[in-house]
Amino acid sequence: MSKKTYRQAINEALRQEMERDERVIIMGEDIAGGLGSPGEQDAWGGPLGVTKGLMPKFGRDRVLDTPITESGFIGAAVGAAATGLRPVAELMFVDFFGVCFDQIFNQAAKFKYMFGGKAVTPVVIRTMYGAGFRAASQHSQCLYPVFTHIPGLKVALPSNPYEAKGLLIQSIRDDDPVIFFEHKAMYDLEGEVPDEPYAIPFGEANVTREGDDATIIAFGRMVNFANDVADKLSKQGISCTVVDPRTTSPLDTETILETAAETGRVVVVDEAHPRCNMATDVAALIAQDAFDKLKAPIKMVTAPHCPVPFSPALEDLYIPGPDKIEAAVRAVVGKAH
Amino acid sequence: MSKKTYRQAINEALRQEMERDERVIIMGEDIAGGLGSPGEQDAWGGPLGVTKGLMPKFGRDRVLDTPITESGFIGAAVGAAATGLRPVAELMFVDFFGVCFDQIFNQAAKFKYMFGGKAVTPVVIRTMYGAGFRAASQHSQCLYPVFTHIPGLKVALPSNPYEAKGLLIQSIRDDDPVIFFEHKAMYDLEGEVPDEPYAIPFGEANVTREGDDATIIAFGRMVNFANDVADKLSKQGISCTVVDPRTTSPLDTETILETAAETGRVVVVDEAHPRCNMATDVAALIAQDAFDKLKAPIKMVTAPHCPVPFSPALEDLYIPGPDKIEAAVRAVVGKAH
Amino acid sequence: MQLSRDDLLQAYRRMRLIREFEDAVHDEFSAGNIPGFVHLYAGEEASAVGFCMHLDERDAIASTHRGHGHCIAKGCDERAMMFEIFGKKDGLCGGKGGSMHIADLSKGMMGANGIVGGGPPLICGAALSAKTLKTGGVAIAFVGDGGSNQGTTFESYNLAKVWNLPAIFVIEDNGYAETTSSSWSVAGSQVDRGKGFGMPAVQVDGSDFFAVWEVAREAIERARGGGGPSLVHVKCMRYYGHFEGDAATYKAPDEVARYKATKDPLMLFRQRVTEAGLLDGQALDAIDREAKARIEQCVAEAKAAPLPTEKDLLTDVYTSPY
Amino acid sequence: MQLSRDDLLQAYRRMRLIREFEDAVHDEFSAGNIPGFVHLYAGEEASAVGFCMHLDERDAIASTHRGHGHCIAKGCDERAMMFEIFGKKDGLCGGKGGSMHIADLSKGMMGANGIVGGGPPLICGAALSAKTLKTGGVAIAFVGDGGSNQGTTFESYNLAKVWNLPAIFVIEDNGYAETTSSSWSVAGSQVDRGKGFGMPAVQVDGSDFFAVWEVAREAIERARGGGGPSLVHVKCMRYYGHFEGDAATYKAPDEVARYKATKDPLMLFRQRVTEAGLLDGQALDAIDREAKARIEQCVAEAKAAPLPTEKDLLTDVYTSPY
Ligand SMILES: Cc1ncc(C[n+]2csc(CCOP(=O)(O)OP(=O)(O)O)c2C)c(N)n1
Ligand SMILES: Cc1ncc(C[n+]2csc(CCOP(=O)(O)OP(=O)(O)O)c2C)c(N)n1
Ligand SMILES: [Mg+2]
Ligand SMILES: [Mg+2]
Question: How close is the Cα of C109 to the center of ligand 1, in Å?
Answer without folding.
Answer: 19
